[in-house]
Amino acid sequence: MANVKPKKHLGQHFLEDMQIADDIVNAMTQHGGYKEIYEIGPGTGVLTTRLLKDERYKTTVVEIDTESVDYLKDVVGLPEDQIIGGDFLKLDFDKIAPHPVGLIGNFPYNISTQIYFKVLEHKNQITECVGMIQKEVAERICCKTGGRTAGILTILVQAFFDVEYLFTVPPTVFNPPPKVESAVISLKRNNRKELNCDEKLFFKVVKQAFSTRRKTLRNAMKPFGLPADFVKKDIFSLRAEALSVDDFIQLTEEIEAIRNS
Fold it and tell me: Where, by residue number, does S-adenosyl-L-methionine bind (predicted)?
């Protein structure tokens, strides 16, 4: 069978550096004690072949490209029951994996941000995630409090996961080479089982705060219709990027209290 051709519309850039592939797989630590790993977008199986050698867990791949699915079965030799042919973003982990699992992959660039929102959606199933994504997105997710690259994902991901920027990957190790640098980051579920506020409201507060990121919270949060005395607090003179996860949780608690009063 011929090699799989990278498809632009799927955001495919196949990794060709075997050492980097080993480094990505070796970054998995089985945090949370899971026995299953799900690999997103395996392509030609560079990561898959290494995962299959690890007897600690069972590897299942999720691949939307039918050409890749055939290649994984016929050339890599992956059993059919370890292949999910379809869109990762449409998977219901509550049904297919109600227990803890790990997630890994050279994530398709065009859906990498959506993948992390999916991880958040199933944060009680996905206890560890090691992914290669665009460097810009990686820096945003791993940004520290006050960093200029902070964004919605920074706060939402770090509310539930310990994040670590592992290493940068140059374009030259891919086929075809992307136009940007990539990076590998690690997420490990933290000890925060639940927030001290309404989670849906927390997400709304964070998204609204960053909706006009160059404005102070006093302007950005106007759609919430908060009392004039409340928005006089010092925190509202700051921009969203200056707030920590705990700051956003406390702010949401206070907004929730106002709404319930």
Answer: 13, 15, 41, 63, 87, 106
